[in-house]
Specification:
Blueprint (H helix, E strand, L loop, with lengths): L1 H56 L6
Length: 63
């Protein structure tokens, strides 16, 4: 009976560990996706700023 109880506890612990590992992996993937989005956003902002600076600094041909 004690062995059955211990086996059950081991099974529950393994299942819990697997669920936590899966949850951790999902959180990691979500974090990676969020970082990629932020990097893309900042890259686009940087390009826009660069283009605006070039437009501002470069004299137009009309002048």
């Amino acid at each position: 009976e004690k062995i059955d109880s211990l086996n059950h506890q081991v099974k529950v612990l393994k299942e819990t560990a697997e669920r936590l590992e899966k949850k951790n992996q999902e959180a990691k993937v979500k974090g990676d996706i969020q970082r990629q989005r932020e990097l893309r956003y900042h890259t686009i902002l940087g390009e826009q700023l660069k283009n605006q600076c070039e437009t501002f600094v470069t004299p137009s041909k009309e002048e």
